Amino acid sequence: MTRYIIRRLLQFIPVILISTLIVYALVFAIPGDPIRALAGDRPMSDAVRETLREQYNLDDPFLIQYFKYIWGIVTALDFGSTFNGRPVTDIIEQRLPVTATLALVTLVIQTLMGIIAGILAALYRDRFFDRFVQVSTVAMVALPTLVIGFLLQLIFGLNLGWFPIAGVNNGVSSYILPALTMAAVSTGILARLVRSELLDSLKSDYVRTATAKGMKRSRVITRHGLRNSLIPAVTFIGADLASMLGGSIIVETIFNLPGLGQQVFASIQGQEGTVVVGIVTLFVLFFVVINLIVDLLYGLLDPRIRYE
Amino acid sequence: MTESQTSTGLTPGTRPGDAPLLEVKDLQVEFRTKAGVAKAINGLNFTLHAGETLAILGESGSGKSVTAQTIMGILDMPPGKIAGGEIRYRGEDLLSMPEESRRRLRGVKIAMIFQDALSSLNPVLPVGWQIAEMFRVHRGLKRKEAKVKAVEMMQRVGIPGAEERAGDFPHQFSGGMRQRIMIAMAIALDPDVLIADEPTTALDVTVQAQVMRLLKDLQTEFNMGLILITHDLGVVADVADKIAVMYSGRVMEAADVYEIYGKPGHPYTQGLLNSIPRIDDEGGRLRAISGLPPSLTDMPPGCPFNPRCEFATDRCRTERPELRPVADGHLSACHYAEDVYAGTATRTRRPSPTGAGMIDVSEEAPQ
Fold first, then answer.
1. How many domains does chain A have?
2. Which residues from chain B sit within 8 angstroms of residue A233, using beta carbons?
3. Is A245 within the bounds of a domain?
4. Residue among B106, B112, B124 whose CB faces A303 most closely
5. In a domain, A182, yes or no
6. Is the Cβ pair A206, B185 closer than 8 Å?
7. Which of A112, A179, A225, B16 sits at a 20 to 30 Å CA gap from B32?
8. Does position A65 have pLDDT exceeding 90, yes or no?
């Protein structure tokens, strides 16, 4: 077990190196001069420009730039800074709480709604609630995030006025509509996953055994049926949580949340490679850590899985 | 909450012991399928007494497992439907009993062992926990006490190192050990009736004998009524007291084991016995019963066995034979039971030399 974890942690190194290299290369490949973009319409003296180019190693070949960047991180935990001189770690520190809150609220919403809807649909199979779940989940999965976001803003923000339309000035209630938007697709998938897994499980031999043991129906479902059917749901939730940061780019833009997603979007436009790479590296790190946790959790839930 | 004190709600006037342990009367079970109504059980009758082993013998689709599931009350309904009849446990009809009272008998007084222990045990729960659950739910024992009881049961069914192995999961045991765990779980609360549905079919031949021996020992020890459901004539011969031969959801013949093997009173039973390959038999032909069992959605009129029977007459094709005594304690559902019993029945059709009734083992490769 410990050996397994150590091996997985060591695997993080190449994953992160390769992914940062790719992101770095992509930002590098964006045409145009970032310093000129920074200056905008205002004139900038050649001396200033040369100094900035030097400071950000912009005249070095691509690979040299990349290695200088990695070297800075490894030796001095220096993740670089923006062209305005603001450290990237500073930006992350400021914006991470917004994205983290969004991800957390989304996670709670989709887990609760998805699992409960899935269980009820399975228990009331082919009845009204099941049909309702089947149809509504198709709609949730099929509608683009943008459309869902605007619809929620229109109905619950504008017409009913229950939740703020944009911004983060109203505490957790500011996050409800963005989180609902982000949770829509996953809630739909999760509900269907839990429904079909639970139906399979309820038809299984070991559930029949539990019934033959004289257990109450409720105990048969919770102790014997549900336990097994939630294993794939855990995997899905984990993978989904990891990819949520990517989804935050769209949602934070729709709802004007000052989080990491919005920052990545702005930084790509401003060709600020260090910021993009810094934040994306964080996303990647988060992704691999969550995946490791899910894999370990999987082993706890299903004893048949062994770590070699 | 403990459920140990629960009354079984016996009808006034009947004392346990007056009535047989288990009595199945005219049981009828159907399945609603797209192809029509499949009549899985058509008027099944048998009785079981304490300490008695009844083997229910039959080929696939004869209704053996449906019978077991109906007695346990674990039949999937729908598509299953109990169309009629009674199942009396100590005189009390299980089918008209409220579900909650019935649940309290299930696993406690009437327990069941399934064929495939690997899929029938919960893969994600330790085996000790699964046995202990019986004591916790039905006897209200604390987790620790229940665990001790579970380990005792595991020792009783012969699992080496029971104490250490109680925390292991089903996949960590061999097939024979898994079936022993199933047995430990089923007999945990000292049931009156134990139903074993093909308990040894999934096991190696060497392990089969051990598991059957264990079942027999436990039955004697706890004085249980044992219903052994099987298609294996060999398994039955050693352990059964009585045999009920099922065909198309009906009992064709019922008698004690020596009677059945020595003097079968039904052509179907005769066919089954003849189809056992014998080591001392010269020649290469295996005498199988020709044809296939009738479709449950489309039963032939008259005797369900008539299309395959060597002795069938016009009467067999129109009038259904009732189960009736041919000798003391020997029942048969055949119009010519006495003749078959005495070995004087006249063949109405010849077993054809090429196929029906005869399989040439020397020419046909084993399947």
1. 1
2. none
3. yes
4. B124
5. yes
6. no
7. A225
8. no
Tokens encoding B249: 């959801």
Contact A304 B185 (CB under 8 A): no
Q: Is residue A259 helix, strand or coil? A: coil
Q: What is the pLDDT of residues B120-131, one digit of tens each?
A: 999 888 999 999
Contact residues on chain A for B114, CB-CB shorter than 8 A: 205, 208-209, 212
Q: Provide the pLDDT for residue A19.
A: 85
Residues of chain B with pLDDT under 50: 1-17, 352-367
Q: Which of B119, B134, B169 sits opposite A213 (nearest CB)?
A: B134
What residues in B contact A297, CB-CB < 8 Å?
A: none
A17-33 pLDDT per residue, tens = 888 888 888 877 776 66
- Angstrom distance (rounded) from CA B171 to CA A287: 32
Between strands B92-93 and B36-48, the pairing is: unpaired
Nearest residue of A to residue B119 by CA position?
Answer: A205
**Which span out of A180-189, A245-254, B5-14, B353-362 was modeled with the highest average pLDDT?**
A180-189
Q: Which residue has the tokens 């061999």?
A: B174
For residue A118, tell me if it sits in a domain.
yes
Q: What is the CATH number of the domain that holds A233?
A: 1.10.3720.10
Residue A112 scores a pLDDT above 90: yes
Test mutation, B103, B124, B185, chain A, max A CBs within 10 A: B124
Query: With an 8 Å Cβ cutoff, is A234 touching chain B?
Result: no
Instruction: Tell me what the mean pLDDT of segment A244-265 comes to.
Output: 85
Inter-chain touch B121–A303, beta carbons under 8 Å: no
Q: Can you tell me the ipTM of this complex? A: 0.80
Q: Per-residue confidence at A38, pLDDT binned at 50, 70, 90?
A: low
- Residue A301 to residue B124, Cβ atoms within 8 A: yes
Q: Is residue A294 part of a domain?
A: no
